[in-house]
Design goal:
mainly alpha, 3-stranded antiparallel sheet, elongated
Length: 299
């Protein structure tokens, strides 16, 4: 194994063990650092020590010029900053040249929230005469009612959902557990699924997973992605849609109806409120469109 790979492996091990970072995040950082070290010709501590702040900025700008999005470029820079900080702490290099490099300005693409009519059509589309339809209806209703990430939704356990109180407990990014409320419609759909479809799927077997497949195993992220796509087509929704679209819709619709950012941040499980603030732009954009259509002086 090269010195380059050894250093990167030491860093990602630190991220997993000491920082409790998610595996997807760690692998993204690993790819970013390999790309950076190859692009700058770095193979170990000595060559990394010779990299300057201006070279790092040049590297980030090169990536943006090559078509990398501002968000991806910012994440790549965050990978480099964290890597150097780790190396300084481990006394492998003397200084962090990335410390003074500013992240590229993010022109974020606004999330594609569904309209209320589209949400209604989507939630009404599953065939409730079939066990799969009852499960799909429960999952769609739950993700729209709570704004869960798809990984959080498929990871729900029976004990995590308090049907009487209308709350669920979920563990999100950074292994942080939060309580999220859900409404009466979601509760009814979950109860119907648990009473009618889930026993059919399990066929006498036991499982702590709330949402299971026809074979009795836990529903996967990929499986639910297919459910969303299939149900969207059944509802006559042909634009791009994913499980994350329902999380975006949850956040946007709450803000449009007066929810405050701090409450929304808590429900979404964002560690930084700046991440939540993107939804204010979504709401403002949608309200501006509505104003232009219905106000006498809007056109």
């Amino acid at each position: 194994m090269s010195d380059k790979d050894t250093l990167i492996n030491e860093y990602v091990t630190y991220l997993v063990v000491d920082r409790n970072r998610a595996s997807a995040t760690v692998e993204a950082y690993r790819r970013d650092l390999r790309h950076f070290m190859e692009a700058t010709g770095c193979n170990g501590p000595e060559s990394l020590s010779g990299v300057t702040a201006s070279r790092i900025m040049e590297y980030v700008n090169e990536q943006k010029a090559g078509g990398l999005s501002a968000a991806s470029a910012a994440r790549r820079l965050a990978s480099i900053k964290g890597f150097y900080k780790f190396l300084v702490a481990e006394r492998r290099v003397a200084a962090n040249p990335a410390e003074t490099v500013r992240a590229p300005k993010l022109w974020r693409k606004l999330p594609g929230a569904l309209s209320l009519d589209e949400v209604d059509r989507l939630l009404a589309a599953p065939d409730l005469t079939k066990p799969e339809g009852q499960r799909d209806a429960a999952m769609l209703e739950m993700i729209y009612a709570t704004g869960l990430r798809v990984s959080e939704l498929v990871g729900l356990t029976l004990s995590a959902v308090n049907m009487e109180a209308g709350y669920l407990a979920t563990t999100g990014k950074g292994a942080k557990t939060r309580l999220v409320p859900f409404g009466e419609q979601a509760r009814r759909k979950i109860e119907e699924y648990r009473a009618r479809a889930r026993p059919i799927f399990l066929a006498g077997r036991e499982s702590e997973s709330l949402f299971v497949t026809r074979r009795g195993g836990p529903m996967t992220r990929q499986g639910f992605w297919k459910v969303v796509k299939k149900t969207a087509r059944a509802a006559g929704i042909w634009k791009g849609i994913s499980p994350h679209s329902l999380r975006h819709s949850f956040a946007t619709h709450l803000l449009e109806r007066g929810a405050d950012l701090r409450s929304l941040q808590s429900m979404l499980g964002h560690s930084d409120i700046s991440t939540t603030q993107i939804y204010t732009h979504v709401a403002e954009s949608r309200l501006s469109t509505i104003f232009g259509k219905i106000h006498p002086r809007g056109r």
